[in-house]
From TrEMBL:
Keyword Heme: no
Domain of life: Bacteria
GO MF: 3-methyl-2-oxobutanoate hydroxymethyltransferase activity; magnesium ion binding; methyltransferase activity
Keyword field contains NADP: no
Protein family per UniProt: Belongs to the PanB family.
Protein name stated in the entry: 3-methyl-2-oxobutanoate hydroxymethyltransferase
Length: 266
């Protein structure tokens, strides 16, 4: 197979065949997505999807490292990017560098992702000039849910110019790609046309240079709520419910275990 894509390879895909991206948090799911994806994100969505947290704000460096180590063991082909969790990078470029370097050193990821636009551009520049590739994330930035007042569509009307300015600022600061989350499609298309690096959309536009979804959302495994953009390609949650109900019924009826599941004396 071709060598694993680097951040430079991802950047070179601007305007080409769309980048296929998914999240993963565990080794078996990483093994499932690896043959099909260019980029696998260990997202801080892990907090909500696997740990039952009410938002991404409670996610820690330790959680990101543990999940990224697991994902890394399941990838051989796709590039691994790890989210910087809330509180690990906002206070300044130097603390951001220390935490990003720890993520890279302890997980083997190729790059980190952090949320923010104009205000984070100096940090993106600081990291990228010191050997840490950065994927940026603008538009709806879930770690800012409390200052945004909810998980609303960002950049409608007059507010669109500010999101474009955010995407431009992180691009000029050296981000190799920019996630666009929950924007009007026309704005996401405009940003894609105006910045030099690939945009990866989630609730953004079909014209983005790539797409990403939370893997548990698209598999129908995470069903606590369903964002409009989270297309379900499978209903594994419903399948699992049927399987567990069947097991419960068989145990209560002494129909499981059957002879083929049991051991003889010999
Ligand atoms: O944490 C996450 O899963 C993400 C993607 C949805 C972009 O940031
Ligand atoms: Na995230």
């Amino acid at each position: 197979p071709a060598r694993r894509p680097t951040p430079q390879d991802i950047t070179a895909r601007k305007g080409g065949t769309p980048l296929v991206c998914l999240t993963a948090y565990t080794t078996p799911v990483a093994e499932l997505v690896d043959p099909h994806c260019d980029l696998v994100l260990v997202g801080d969505s892990v907090g909500m999807v696997l740990h039952g947290l009410p938002s991404t704000l409670g996610v820690t460096m330790e959680m990101m490292i543990l999940h990224a180590q697991a994902v890394g063991r399941g990838l051989s082909r796709a590039m691994m990017v790890v989210d910087m969790p809330f509180g690990s990078y906002e206070a300044g470029s130097e603390v951001a560098f220390a935490n990003a370097a720890r993520l890279m050193a302890e997980t083997g990821c190729a790059a980190v992702k952090l949320e923010g636009g104009v205000e984070m551009a100096p940090t993106v520049r600081f990291l990228t000039r010191r050997g840490i590739p950065v994927m940026a994330h603008v538009g709806l930035t879930p770690q800012a849910v409390n200052t945004l007042g909810g998980y609303k569509v960002q950049g409608r009307g007059e507010a669109g110019d500010a999101v474009l300015a955010d995407a431009r600022a992180v691009t000029e600061a050296g981000a190799f790609s920019v996630v666009l989350e929950k924007l009007p499609a026309s704005l996401a298309t405009r940003i894609t046309q105006e910045i030099a690096v690939p945009t990866v959309g989630i609730g953004a536009s079909a014209e983005c240079d790539g797409q990403i979804l939370v893997v548990d959302d698209m598999l129908g495994l995470f069903t606590a709520f369903k964002p409009k953009f989270a297309k379900r390609y499978a209903e594994l949650g419903a399948d699992a419910d049927r399987a567990i109900a069947a097991y419960a019924e068989e145990v209560r009826a002494r129909a499981f275990p059957a002879a083929e599941h049991l051991f003889g004396d010999g």
